Structures are given as structure tokens and as C-alpha cells.
User: Which sequence fits this backbone?
């Protein structure tokens, strides 16, 4: 699957490459969204300035290859996103957060991913976890497992469905057969170089999809080597409705989420200029942030469709 370029966040939009969802595939396991960005020269572009915005029914997974991002959320968490360290934020019934690249960042390069929460967990309390996995090293390759189990290593980060998330760096021509759960479907996002996945070659920014059924995922690095993210999980098995920053189960739920956010951020018909002026409500207040919150776009003039 090849990406499309979209702007991320407000007036100072960072261009990102989006490979999930696509017309013919909405999810890989519970993974429902994949943005890939950079290398971005911050001195030229201004970097990432994503002001407070809301989420429901999902977990965000932030993974960097270069740079540093400051995270603040309405559940009281303040943390840095750094290369090789995963930040997982659980939106549950509702959270708002901001993401801003720091002053020390010269190049910004990474991936932002979402995981759909199953119906039994989607109204859970908001939460946040940070984890810095140790490197796992082999002959011509190294990896970091940030979710699930791979290469004999297991992440302690809590997810609400079985998931796999790992970064792998392969030297040129390396052949790496991965032992994986045969009940999982898998995606391989190529960050740098190229890699052949079960006989099909994917270039930089491509996302390869492998259906369930095989306990071995075979990767072969191209002549320049490769850096990839390996994602996986059992087929989600539930329909979702995803629009803007919300994951729900129906059009009417999404309408209600949008109305709740707009009610928190508007006064006398206008969006408040400072996030400290946001009213408390379903999505809370991002403490310590003074950017103008991002208003929700207008809903399309049609009912939102389910994704399966």
C-alpha cells in the first residue's frame, strides 16, 4: 500500500504520509491509523505544532526516529517523545492533548499510530504509558519491541487487544525470518531503504500487508538496508466509525463527540484564543498549554460509514 500526503494540525501544518486507513483496508489488527513523517528540517518548516485536540475510543502510539516532541494531555501527563521510546496515550471515553516539537529539535522524523479500542474498553479512563525498550541484536539486524512480543522480547505496555509493534533495522541483504503469531495479520511500514516481505518488495513509505495464517514473516533487506516498523494483531472483528480524531460505533456518536468538543472550546460563537480558557467537560483541559485549541471541521453532508 502506498501513502497519500496530508497536512497535520492547524495553521502550521506538518505534511505527513498516511498509509492507513485506505480505501481497501481500514485496519491491521486493531491498528486503524498510520502517519509517517520526516526527515523534516525544523528550521525550514517550523516542526510540529499540534495544539490541543480531542480523542475518543482509541490509543495513540508515538514513535520517533529523530527529534523530540513535548506531550501534554488533559489527564495530567507531561512527557517527552524521544527516539527509541514509545509513548502510548489511552483516550478511552475522552481526552485532549497537544504535541509540539522542542527547541532542541533540528530534524523531526517518526510515526504516529492509532489503535482502536474494543467495545468493552472504549469508555475506559484516559491514561498514559512511557516505555524505553532495550535493543535486541542479531547477525546484521537490531530491533526494539515496543508492543507485544517478538524476537524473544516482550513489552510491558498494556493494550486492550493483542498487538505487535517493533522497529527493525536491517543491514543490506540481510534475511530475517520472524516467528510471529499465525492468528495475527501484519503490516510492515518501510521507513528507509527497501525490504521484501514474503516475496513482495516495498520501498520507503510503503506499507506491506500480510494476512493471518503463517507463523513466519520473512523479511529481506534491499541493497541499501532497511529500517521498518512491524505491526500486527488478530483481525479486529468489530466495525468502527472513524472521523477526524474520534473512533466510535455510529454516526450519531461522532456527532455527539464533535458537539461536546466544540462546546468546550467556544465562547460567544468563537474559539477561545488560549487553551487555558477551555471549559472543563468530556475532554478535560490540557494544563500548561496556551495554544489555541483546534476546532473540529464540519461534518460531511452524509452519514458516516462504518469501517470493518
Assistant:
Amino acid at each position: 500500500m502506498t501513502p497519500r500526503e496530508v497536512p497535520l494540525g492547524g495553521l502550521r501544518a506538518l505534511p505527513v504520509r498516511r498509509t492507513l486507513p485506505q480505501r481497501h483496508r481500514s485496519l491491521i489488527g486493531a491498528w486503524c491509523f498510520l502517519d509517517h513523517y520526516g526527515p523534516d528540517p525544523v528550521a525550514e518548516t517550523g516542526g510540529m505544532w499540534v495544539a490541543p485536540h480531542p480523542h475518543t475510543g482509541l490509543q495513540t502510539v508515538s514513535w520517533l526516529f529523530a527529534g523530540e516532541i513535548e506531550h501534554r494531555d488533559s489527564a495530567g501527563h507531561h512527557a517527552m517523545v524521544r527516539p527509541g521510546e514509545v509513548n502510548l496515550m489511552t483516550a478511552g471515553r475522552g481526552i485532549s492533548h497537544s504535541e509540539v516539537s522542542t527547541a532542541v529539535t533540528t530534524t523531526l522524523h517518526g510515526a504516529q499510530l492509532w489503535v482502536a479500542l474494543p467495545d468493552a474498553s472504549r469508555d475506559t479512563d484516559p491514561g498514559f504509558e512511557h516505555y524505553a525498550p532495550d535493543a535486541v541484536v542479531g547477525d546484521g539486524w537490531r530491533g526494539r519491541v515496543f508492543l507485544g512480543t517478538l524476537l524473544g522480547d516482550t513489552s510491558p505496555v498494556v493494550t486492550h487487544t493483542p498487538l505487535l509493534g517493533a522497529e527493525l533495522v536491517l543491514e543490506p541483504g540481510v534475511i530475517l525470518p520472524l516467528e510471529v503469531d499465525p492468528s495475527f495479520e501484519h503490516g510492515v511500514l518501510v521507513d528507509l531503504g527497501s525490504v521484501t516481505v514474503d516475496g513482495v518488495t516495498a520501498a520507503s513509505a510503503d506499507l506491506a500487508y500480510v494476512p493471518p495464517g503463517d507463523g513466519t514473516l520473512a523479511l529481506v533487506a534491499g541493497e541499501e538496508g532497511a529500517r521498518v516498523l512491524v505491526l500486527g494483531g488478530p483481525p479486529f472483528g468489530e466495525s468502527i466509525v472513524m472521523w477526524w480524531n474520534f473512533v466510535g460505533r455510529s454516526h450519531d456518536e461522532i456527532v455527539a463527540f464533535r458537539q461536546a468538543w466544540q462546546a468546550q472550546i467556544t465562547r460567544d460563537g468563537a474559539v477561545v484564543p488560549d487553551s487555558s480558557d477551555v471549559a472543563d467537560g468530556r475532554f478535560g483541559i490540557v494544563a500548561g498549554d496556551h495554544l489555541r485549541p483546534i476546532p473540529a471541521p464540519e461534518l460531511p453532508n452524509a452519514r458516516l460509514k462504518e469501517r470493518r
